From TrEMBL:
<dbReference type="GO" id="GO:0003677">
    <property type="term" value="F:DNA binding"/>
</dbReference>
<dbReference type="GO" id="GO:0006352">
    <property type="term" value="P:DNA-templated transcription initiation"/>
</dbReference>
<feature type="domain" description="RNA polymerase sigma-70 region 2">
    <location>
        <begin position="21"/>
        <end position="90"/>
    </location>
</feature>
<dbReference type="InterPro" id="IPR007627">
    <property type="entry name" value="RNA_pol_sigma70_r2"/>
</dbReference>
<feature type="domain" description="RNA polymerase sigma factor 70 region 4 type 2">
    <location>
        <begin position="117"/>
        <end position="167"/>
    </location>
</feature>
<feature type="coiled-coil region">
    <location>
        <begin position="153"/>
        <end position="180"/>
    </location>
</feature>
<dbReference type="Pfam" id="PF04542">
    <property type="entry name" value="Sigma70_r2"/>
</dbReference>
<dbReference type="InterPro" id="IPR039425">
    <property type="entry name" value="RNA_pol_sigma-70-like"/>
</dbReference>
<keyword id="KW-0175">Coiled coil</keyword>
<dbReference type="Pfam" id="PF08281">
    <property type="entry name" value="Sigma70_r4_2"/>
</dbReference>
<dbReference type="InterPro" id="IPR036388">
    <property type="entry name" value="WH-like_DNA-bd_sf"/>
</dbReference>
<keyword id="KW-0804">Transcription</keyword>
<dbReference type="InterPro" id="IPR013249">
    <property type="entry name" value="RNA_pol_sigma70_r4_t2"/>
</dbReference>
<keyword id="KW-0731">Sigma factor</keyword>
<comment type="similarity">
    <text>Belongs to the sigma-70 factor family. ECF subfamily.</text>
</comment>
<dbReference type="InterPro" id="IPR013324">
    <property type="entry name" value="RNA_pol_sigma_r3/r4-like"/>
</dbReference>
<dbReference type="InterPro" id="IPR013325">
    <property type="entry name" value="RNA_pol_sigma_r2"/>
</dbReference>
Length: 180
């Protein structure tokens, strides 16, 4: 499939960069998709669809071997796999317990407040973590996030709103627990 993807790019530099991305992450992407779909054929479809989405936004991909790129790619393939799963089962939602959070996060040790906030974010459901990551870490617009996750822009705004509300609730609970 790599030659097909490369044919979609202009410039030797982009082709080399995409080839490195492909070689670096294709096995991880397949693993993440297969864990969700439990079917190798559908997992391959999810990986293929994800690579096509990445090609559409390839100008936004920075350094290949960094945490930000890995996070972006895992988020993309996970959401594509979830969408395929939902299509297969003809359900509008999938229980979050069935989907493992497959991305490893590096500890944030810049300041105690950031560590506290990071732990609170990890307690959020995956759909909220994803939009927060894409919005505030990857710095995508709501429109771009909607396109990547194959949802409406209004859904992105609502998930961001709900994620912030839940974060406030988690932080308030932890703060009141620390006081007692």
């Amino acid at each position: 499939m790599l030659p097909i993807y490369l044919a979609m790019l202009d410039g030797e530099e982009d082709k080399n960069k995409f080839e490195l991305l492909y070689v670096t992450y294709r096995k991880l992407m397949f693993y993440v998709a297969n864990r969700i779909l439990n079917d190798e054929r559908f997992a391959e479809d999810a990986v293929h669809q994800t690579f096509l989405k990445i090609l559409e936004n390839f100008d936004k991909v920075g350094e290949i071997s960094c945490h930000k790129t890995k996070s972006y790619i895992v988020t993309m393939v996970r959401n594509t796999a979830i969408n395929l799963y939902n299509q297969r089962k003809r359900h509008t939602t999938i229980p979050l317990e069935d989907v493992e959070y497959c991305i490893t996060t590096e500890p944030i040790s810049v300041a105690e407040d950031l560590d506290h906030l990071a732990r609170a974010v990890l307690k959020l459901p995956v759909i909220y973590k994803d939009v927060l990551t894409l919005k505030y870490v990857q710095e995508f617009s709501n429109e771009e996030i909607a396109k990547m996750l194959d949802i409406y822009e209004t859904t992105v705004r609502k998930r961001l709103e709900r994620a912030k509300r839940r974060l406030e609730e988690i932080l308030e609970r932890e703060e009141s627990a620390d006081v007692n």
